[in-house]
Amino acid sequence: MNGGTARLGAARGRLGAPGVRAASGATAACWRRAPRPTAAAAARSARARVVSFKSDPDAAPPAAAVAVAAAPLAPRPAAPNLLPTAGGVVAPRDAGVQLACSEPTYGLRLTYSRAGRPLAGCDRIIARIGHSGWSNTADVELTPSPADPDLFEGAHGIPASQLANPAHAEVQVVFRGVGAGGRECWDNNGGHDWQLSVELAQEGLVLPAERAGPMRALVSSLLLRLDALAAAGLLTAEQFASLRNQAWAQDFALVRAYQTVRDVADDSAVASLLLSRFNFLRRPGLHVVHVASEMVPVAKVGGLGDVVTGLAKAHQQSGILSEVILPKYDCIAYAAIQELRPLRSIEVAFDGRRVATRVWSGVVEGLPVTFLEPSNGMFWRRQFYGAPDDLERFMFFARAALEWLLASGKQPDVLHLHDWQSAAVAPLLAEEFRGRGLTQPRCVFTIHNIAFQGWMTPPLLSKVGLDPDRMARPDAMLDDSRPGFAPGSHDCSLLRGAIAFSDRVTTVSPTYAREVFLPEFGMGAQAILSRHRHKFSGILNGIDNDNWCPEADPFLPAHFSAADRAGKEDCKRLLLEELGLPYTTPNWVLQRQSGGQHQQLQLQQLQQHADQGNGNGNGNGAAARPGRPLLAVVSRLTEQKGLPLIEHGIKTALARGAQVVVLGAASEPDVQRRWEDMARDHGSGPDARIVLRYDEGLAHRIYAAADAILVPSFFEPCGLTQLIALRYGTIPIVNRTGGLADTVRDVADGGVPENARNGFVLNGREEARVQVAVDRAMDAFLDANEWWRGELVARAMAQDWSWSRSAADYLSLYRGAL
Ligand code: ADP
Is the C-alpha dihedral spanning 308, 311, 315, 317 positive or negative? Predict the structure, then answer.
């Protein structure tokens, strides 16, 4: 048994930042990095929180003393007057002053004692260092310590952006030794590796005893100086309280900042330095609360649920505090919630009563989520939407969310509202809750689908505490645009309330943001949107690459990637098997392949690619045979999705010998009946299956298995199905509208670079249009199969539709709203 200890400390260093010197002058601005700090300086500036841990208790040899301390890393050596190398961010050169910042990097200092360990006889010792579960591994050769021949030391840097969790650095280490005659051996801590971690989010100051004395005096000096600054009116009460708390907690960054100005007599200079520090510390990122009716994977009806989770996750990774408030439906997927616990009860005034509402918290997809559960059973309906009192349910939810924020004492920077279900938050905040103390938040409202506006008669608004007389005005919630408008009918809408009272309004693609000004798409909201045009924009949705990941999707029977697509063919075979459809390559397909029908191709570049046999032609390991094309539909079955075009597209594909799989859920009874008829007429033989339900796992398997997916929507605010399909190498056939127009470019579109061409585009609502598009896709699959599999699928999979770009756009929008 042994109980060797290891130590790990980390500090956030800003590579290059301390060394940047701004130079102004008439000549070309120049700047250079500061000289590399000496080891002693680095050690002095190390602000390591020291963590002890036990190595493998059963391992026989004594544990190595592995100490990893941290310091701001030395800048990379750079020639004078050079602009920063990759990773640096540079202000525009013509500004006259140049500023460069490099990515924050955590520096690790590592020491290993070989005495009594398996590497005792080795002259060279190399540390293999990884982090976040052995990612980004690097080999670092350690150098012997001059003080102790058994001690080896080395340093390594981890860019903060590479950490899986910005709150922890979890470092894994094993050691390789090279002994006499080049003999190699390893020390992996008895098979357990070294697992060292440090809490980065709580970088408190834990000083060795010998340094504690001066530190205490410094903190006392700071506390007294803060008193003086407050007394001189140089700090507000809030700033004083916050700085005092940080000084009290011996916050390292603040104390060090103070150390540099301790002897400065000018109080206002000291105050401004501390405040710049204070602002940085107080604002590590924005605090954004999404008030939403859906979030994957716990409550999903359509794309809204994907967007809330995907956007909040992307923001969380970039340092924003992202929270979600959700109704606690009884039909929620409880298994996907971790640490679900009741927090407390609040009372929510609604319809003349006080409704006791339980507040729960839980972690979903790594996000902090608050669930609201009113005791009146409004969310115990075994369905998300579709109850006769949906308007009341979601108005209540909006009020309860604000009531909870007030009770919790939180002051988020932004409340991000989604569709009519949380729209009432905006007028309630403006009319009531700001006055009650919720002063900080700005409202951002995202329209995911303008077809749903939450129409109601004005008196209903009084239930949630909004004054119907004040709200039923054209500049507030009154909808005077609808045909047949008459006072007293359904003439207010929640969507209008959110547009009027929010600081920013977005929709989910740039094209849809233009289309909604047309009567055909705007559904009566054109006038109010025009009035608020200055704050309205379109930001394209992304998809959550963790959730939609063909390399590791847990719903798939086989996996694949853009580089190795063989698993896609396995997914196709196994899906057909799952649905009882044959997996064959009929003779007509083979004949067509060999029958020289290439000349029939309408797309010249298809011809070229097929002839050239770009790539390895068989999809990088996929079966060489083309099989029958498999066309998929994964959709809510509703008017918006272009139901007649879906039907016609399916019939066209079947007539061309394709196989078809439809996964759809209909909420309207007549649509359900129509699709049951379709299933009976077309979905039982060897060619097609029509599955009428919501099934997350099956949806994933279909995206992975299909060759093409049909999305001929009449209108589509953004559409996620085509983006998900692209990620799984399934080629979209889409109508040119909304987000479909922004994301899918026809393979024959000479107006865009070739690697942007990723699908087949139709334009219009006539059946003939979908027929042409499906025909073109079938021809391409059958006649240019090598190009399809070898190039088109690879191109589609390589495109990036993740949240990275759009999350940054939302961040700028939030900042603009503050
Ligand atoms: P919308 O939000 O209008 O329904 P989107 O394309 O934005 O359309 O998002 C649809 C989302 O719902 C996608 O994640 C899609 O996979 C999923 N989806 C649609 N229908 C089904 C279904 N029947 N079963 C499982 N998932 C479905």
Answer: positive
